[in-house]
UniProtKB/TrEMBL annotation:
Protein name: Class I SAM-dependent methyltransferase
Pfam families, sorted: Methyltransf_23
Keywords noted in UniProt: Membrane, Methyltransferase, Transferase, Transmembrane, Transmembrane helix
Organism: Streptomyces siderophoricus
GO molecular function terms attached to this record: methyltransferase activity
Lineage of origin: Bacteria, Bacillati, Actinomycetota, Actinomycetes, Kitasatosporales
Record field: transmembrane: 318-339
InterPro entries membership: SAM-dependent_MTases_sf
Gene3D superfamilies noted in UniProt: Vaccinia Virus protein VP39 (3.40.50.150)
Family annotation (CDD domains): AdoMet_MTases
Keyword Transcription: no
A biological process term (GO) from this entry: methylation
Length: 355
């Protein structure tokens, strides 16, 4: 009850600032619409989908286009720096910190962290490992058990990376832009990981160049990303969780990424479309649908707190649908071994060695 009251007070305190920002309109958060693909410069574009912000339910409509030449999927028009700040705020830090911390420490998350760490085992034992987009450093804390002789550092734009350093999940914390900080970190690391990070960045090629700059010769870059060619993406449409609008700006197909790594001075040594699958497709799609159907929650970007009737209806619908979400989650886990062997798998992993 106390936590509920504290949250309600925090929401009320934030509401005035959000109201004044939204009064200026959403158009200022977007760059001009592109007429050519940002990956291959082809003008053969088609609309892949339109989506809203399913995760936070902040206002706005977001469009993903797909290049008919190379298959690259990208947000168009894309959020600018001001828009990214607005839509990330109170998601991983601030108001959303407690929720994200719980999700990052679940048994499923820990299993994913372990498989990511073990993927490096055939390629040696790195002395220094930089996890880019580390969030609150939970991957590093788990990976340290599998690589006990490795020192893990973390880099992120959010304040969570500093908390990860204070709480001992990483040995060193860097807060800021990877492309800018890579100048300071040149040639320092034996391994650099980007787990579900690259799709969040405005310029993926620059991030790959930063990784090349940061790695020692012979060091390894580990990337996991959503697979836009997944059959699940087609079947579930805009409700597919990994679209994650408006945060995901670029979703390159696996072949595009491997080709670019070669151009950047890497040799791809491992590709995997099975193990990186995150078994939550049915659950996340159902949750996205449910959020769209529910009465509004008390969120600071809404003009006012919902009334008593709206809050009662929301609680009643959540209680009624919760068992169905539990069943879908169990089904996701049960089907995962089979899904991983098919094109329904929703993610891929690439490991590349710096030449």
């Amino acid at each position: 009850m106390r936590k509920t009251k504290e949250r309600r007070e925090r929401v009320a305190a934030l509401r005035a600032d959000y109201r004044s920002e939204l009064a200026e309109g959403l158009e200022r958060f977007f760059e001009p619409r592109r007429t050519v693909c940002p990956w291959c410069a082809s003008d053969r574009l088609r609309r892949r989908l339109r989506s809203t912000d399913h995760l936070q339910q902040k206002p706005g409509v977001f469009v993903l286009d797909q290049c008919c030449s190379c298959g690259h999927v990208f947000q168009n028009p894309r959020l600018n720096a001001q828009g990214l700040e607005f839509y990330y705020r109170d998601c991983y830090d601030g108001l959303g910190h407690a929720t994200m911390a719980r999700l990052a420490s679940t048994p499923l998350a820990n299993r994913l962290y372990r498989t990511r760490a073990r993927a490096m085992l055939p390629h040696g034992s790195p002395a220094l490992w930089l996890d880019v987009g580390t969030g609150h450093g939970h991957f590093c804390a788990v990976a340290r058990r599998i690589h006990p002789h490795t020192e893990f550092h973390g880099l992120d734009r959010g304040e969570g990376v500093l908390r990860a350093g204070r709480e001992g999940r990483i040995a060193r914390a860097y807060r800021g832009s990877f492309t800018e900080l890579s100048q300071r970190l040149a040639g320092r690391y034996d391994a650099v990981s980007m787990y579900h990070y690259l799709e969040h960045t405005p310029a993926p090629r620059r991030e790959l160049a930063a990784a090349h700059r940061t790695l020692r010769v012979g060091g390894h870059l580990l990337i996991e990303a959503p697979d836009p060619q997944s059959l699940s993406a087609r079947l579930l449409g805009r409700w597919w969780g990994p679209w994650l609008q408006p945060q995901h700006l670029h979703l390159p197909p696996l072949a595009n990424l491997c080709e670019e790594l070669g151009e950047q001075g890497f040799t791809v040594v491992s590709v995997d479309r099975r193990e990186p699958h995150v078994p939550t497709d049915l659950t996340s799609a159902a949750a996205n649908l449910l959020k769209a159907a529910l009465p509004p929650d008390d969120l600071p970007w809404r003009p006012r707190r919902p009334g008593p009737l709206s809050r009662w209806l929301r609680r009643a619908m959540l209680l009624q649908t919760a068992p169905n979400l539990v069943v879908l989650f169990a089904l996701d886990l049960l089907l995962a071994p089979l899904i991983r062997r098919t094109r329904l798998s929703n993610a891929y992993r690439v490991i590349a060695r710096r030449n």
